[in-house]
Amino acid sequence: MLTVFLVVSAVVALAVIIHYEILFQMTLLMPKLKVRHRFRIVLGVLGALLAHVLEIWLFALAYYAMHHSADWGHLEGAISGTLLDCAYFSFTTFTTLGLGDIAPVGHLRYLVGIESLTGLVLITWTASFLYVEMRKFWDSH
C-alpha cells in the first residue's frame, strides 16, 4: 500500500508542477505579447487547456501502467486496455464528469479519487488565474 501511496503522490506532484510552470510562464509571457489584450486572454485560455491536457495524459499513463501491471488493480467495463481508453477514462475523471462506463478495481481506485480532487483544484486554479489576467488587461484597456 505504501508503494501505491508513493506512486499516486508522485503523479499528483508532477501534475501540480506542470500546472504551476505553465501558468507561471504564461504570467511572464502575456504582458510581453505585442497583440490586442483580448487575444492575450485567448492565448491564456489555450495555454491553460494545454496544461490540463498534459496533466490528464500524465494520469492516463499512470492508469495504463497500473492496468497492465500485477497487483495494482485494473479498469473494467467498456475498455480494451489501450492508452486511448485510459486517456478517455482520465478525461472523465479529471473533469469529474465520470460517465460510469469504465470502473476502477483494486488499488487503482485511489488514483481515480485523487485525480478527481486534483482536477477540481487545478481547474479552479486556472479559473482564478484567468480572472486575474482578464482584470489586468481589461482594466488597463
Explained architecture:
By secondary structure, this protein is mostly helical. The protein has a single domain (2-140), classed as Helix Hairpins. The protein is 74% helix and 6% strand. It is built from four helices and two strands. The chain has helices at residues 2-29, 37-67, 83-94, 108-140; strands spanning 74-77, 102-105. It has a two-stranded antiparallel ribbon. It is elongated, with a radius of gyration of 17 Å. The mean pLDDT is 93.
The rounded Rg comes to 17 Å
Share of helical residues: over 70%
Structural class assignment: mainly alpha
Strand and helix order: HHEHEH
What is the name of the CATH topology? Helix Hairpins
**What would you say the CATH architecture is?**
Orthogonal Bundle
Beta-strand percentage?
5-15%
Q: Main sheet?
A: 2 strands, antiparallel
Average pLDDT: 93
What is the number of independent domains? 1
The level 1 CATH classification is Mainly Alpha
Count the strands?
2
Distance linking N and C termini: 54 Å
Key words describing this protein structure:
141 residues; mainly alpha; Helix Hairpins; two-stranded antiparallel ribbon
Outline the fold blueprint:
Elements: H1 2-29, H2 37-67, E1 74-77, H3 83-94, E2 102-105, H4 108-140
Antiparallel strand pairs: 1-2
Summarize the structure.
This protein has about 140 residues and is mainly α. It has a single domain, classed as Helix Hairpins, CATH 1.10.287.
